[in-house]
Amino acid sequence: MSRYSKKILNLINTSCEHLTAEQIYLEMKKEEPGIVLASVYNNLNRLHEEGLIRKVVIEGSPERYDKMLKHDHLVCSRCGKLTDIHLSDFTSQIEEQSGIKVLSYDLKINYLCPECIRQMENIRRNENG
Amino acid sequence: MSRYSKKILNLINTSCEHLTAEQIYLEMKKEEPGIVLASVYNNLNRLHEEGLIRKVVIEGSPERYDKMLKHDHLVCSRCGKLTDIHLSDFTSQIEEQSGIKVLSYDLKINYLCPECIRQMENIRRNENG
DNA sequence: TTTATAATTAGAATAATTCTAAATTTAGGA
DNA sequence: TCCTAAATTTAGAATTATTCTAATTATAAA
After folding, report:
1. What is the pLDDT of residues B8-64, one digit of tens each?
2. How far apart are CA B112 and CA B56, in angstroms?
3. Whether the Cβ atoms of residue B68 and residue B104 lie closer than 8 Å to each other
4. What region does A99 belong to: left with phi over 0, alpha with psi -120 to 50, or beta?
5. Are A98 and B105 inside 8 Å of each other by CB?
6. Which of A108, A112, A114, B73 is 20–30 Å from A6 (CA)?
7. Cβ atoms < 10 Å from Cβ of B103
8. Helix or strand (DSSP H, E) at B72
């Protein structure tokens, strides 16, 4: 196993955030000052090929790296914040409806996060009051 | 409405493919030889903000622009090909399970497309025969 | 028509990621 | 332990997709 991959995997698996390569690089530098951004990318790509981590792509931001454990994502349509949500597994429903064999799926749900809802209510209140 | 937006919207709405900005640009040039790639991007971003088209982001390829009409996506895990699939709407299930208000969602299903399944079977046959 | 606003152009700039080639590290025999 | 081959890392250039800037042109409204 490569020099950094265990630490990088651990970072991803223990982080509550969805880290970018840059963030992982900065975090790694604390313990491995010599590490270079390209090595972070190399490791992330290897870990992803080995099926040990997930990549999360969202429009307009760099890729984020995530634990493998099955879960879905909420994306706030106003501020873009990404959070996890644990829904039931839709695999069998998809397979029944489509007849295909599902290897995995990626479900991103657009919603308004509580902060944005609050902010929008405040704005409305100020306009009308 | 802007000079090109109607044609671009039409291209997207009538295409069976999931076009990239580059492909839309090349297609537009046939009728509008003076058009420039930046204008295609401007128009696509405007159409997207207006909610008239969808953006589809897949790891490792440029963004693709898609009709708004609700549908889901199949992504072949071997060759990466993207195709449409029409599944039932999971919105109410998601809302019941989570308690959030779903604005929309984006479901990408990883599978093996028929061509890849065939190719893999051929490879296996050659190895064993 | 005049004017203001919006869209377009050309091309530079940016940001994220990959690539290249050389150096270093690692792992597995001899 | 030493040697060798393969894998990883490094530094920095290159690439790609997309955005930005400023000047120009088109559009629509008064």
Report:
1. 999 999 999 999 999 999 999 999 999 999 999 999 999 999 999 999 998 889 999
2. 19
3. no
4. left
5. no
6. A108
7. 14
8. strand B72-76
